[in-house]
Amino acid sequence: CCAVAAVACLFLYRGRPEKLGVRPLYDEGPGDDSADAGESQGVSFAEALHTKQFYILCLAWFTLGIGADGIMSSLVLIASDYGYVAQSGMVLSACLLSSTVFSPVGGWICDRFGSRVLVNIGIGLLIVSCGLLCLGAVPLWLLFVIAVFLGFVWNCSIVPQASSTIEVFGRRDFAKKNTIFVSMQCLGVAVAPPFFNAFYDFAGGYGAG
User: Fold this and answer.
1) Which has the closest alpha carbon to 156: 63, 47, 87?
2) Residue (of 156, 179, 181, 170) closest to 17 by Cα position
3) Which pLDDT score is estimated for 185?
4) Radius of gyration over alpha carbons of the chain, in Å?
5) Quick count: other Cβ atoms within 10 Å of Cβ 131?
6) Residues paired with residue 95 on neighbouring β-strands, in sequence order
7) How many angstroms separate the Cα of 172 from the Cα of each of 13, 50, 63, 140, 168?
8) Is the whole model's pTM more than 0.90, yes or no?
9) CB atoms within 10 A of CB 166
10) CA dihedral 119, 188, 69, 107 (to 10 degrees)
């Protein structure tokens, strides 16, 4: 389920800001750095609603919410299902610690290469993690490795949020546009449990093996 969502997001999260006449956030070319120029640069909220990029980005963040955030929120249940009830809390702690450590790394990647690069890295790690979890009950050490991967993946659904909004639509009406994308991601997190429950009922556990 998460791997499918990740692949869908990989195909949806694409395109270039230049197509909307917006200078990319990571473009370090000459420009007016004044506060007024920064606020006026880009596409207005009303104009954004008439672009396909707006709805593609909504769908991309929705699927990423299902995949990245959904699996992280079920990590304790997955560890318990694999027989690691006593260690399930530590597995979640490893995931959150990884998110803490790698958060500045994600910010650097966004600033240097753009948010799409960070999202693509996260999608790759998410697919690998899902593939390993689908093998069935994995060794505890490998479950901790997966938790570290998922901590980085979680950052890839949070750190690029604001950056992607600016990269695609500029800084104009930033809060109006960004809150829509945040809401779509939260909606993905909200609908993730039914997907996991359906998979659990169908497979008889969180591992397909």
Assistant:
1) 63
2) 170
3) 85
4) 18
5) 12
6) none
7) 21, 15, 26, 48, 11
8) no
9) 23
10) 40
